Every structure is written in C-alpha cells, then in structure tokens.
Amino acid sequence: MDFKASNEKIWLENETGEVIAFVDFPEYEPGKVEVTHTVVDPCLRGRGVAGKLMEVLAEKLAADGRKAELTCSYAVRWFAKHPELDGLLIDPEAEKKKTEEYAGDACGIPRHRK
User: How far apart are CA 62 and CA 49, in angstroms?
Assistant: First the structure.
C-alpha cells in the first residue's frame, strides 16, 4: 500500500485520487499530537488497513520525536495491543484507562487536554 503523509495526516488514495482511508493527528503543542480519527472506506474493511495506518503513524511519531494523546477509539485499542510502543504516548497509563472505559466501536472518547 502506498500511504501518503503530511505532518498531521496519513492517508491512502484510490486510483482516481480519492481518499479511501486516513488517520488524523493534529499537533496541539510542539511535539504533542492528538490522534483524532481513523477512517477506512467500507471497500477496504477486513484487510488490516486501519492497523497499517497505525503502524505508519507509529513510525512517523518515532521519526519525528513526537508523542500522542489518543481520542480515536480505534487508536486507543490498537496502542493497547502494542505496549512496546508506550514510549510514543504522552501518558501511557491514561491511555490504558481509556481502553477500559471506552470499549465501543465508534470514536467518542472525550478530549482531555492538560
């Protein structure tokens, strides 16, 4: 898959240039991003695209020296399954609590910024 990336988004386009999958992570303070949305078009579901978006995101965060706060429920669950990447999170313990509190499929985790 040929993912494209900017400083605040990673995405996948179809052959006509339409965005069919993405993860948004706007920077709200220098070195700190908020992972807000992970979206995959239904035509790609079940192919592991969301997980691949997270892998590319993790690589980008590490390369850029930035850390993340997670408000996207998919990102919360994905990072919970990859504790080896806790160093990419601003507050790993707070993110683990979100996993316990928000088990639904849709994004809807309240944004908590200090």
Answer: 20
Instruction: Please give the domain boundaries of the chain with CATH numbers for all domains.
Output: 4-101 (3.40.630.30)
- By the 10 Å C-beta count (0-12 exposed, 13-18 middle, 19+ buried), 69 is classed as buried
Q: CA-CA distance, 2 to 31, in Å (whole number)?
A: 26
Condensed to tens digits (0 to 9), the pLDDT of residues 63-88 reads 999 999 999 999 999 999 999 999 99
Beta strands 32-35 and 67-70 are: parallel
Residue type, 95: E
Give the number of other CB atoms < 10 A from CB of residue 58: 17
**Encoding tokens for residue 108?**
């809807």
- The model carries a pTM of 0.86
Q: Which sign, positive or negative, has the C-alpha torsion 102, 68, 78, 48?
A: positive
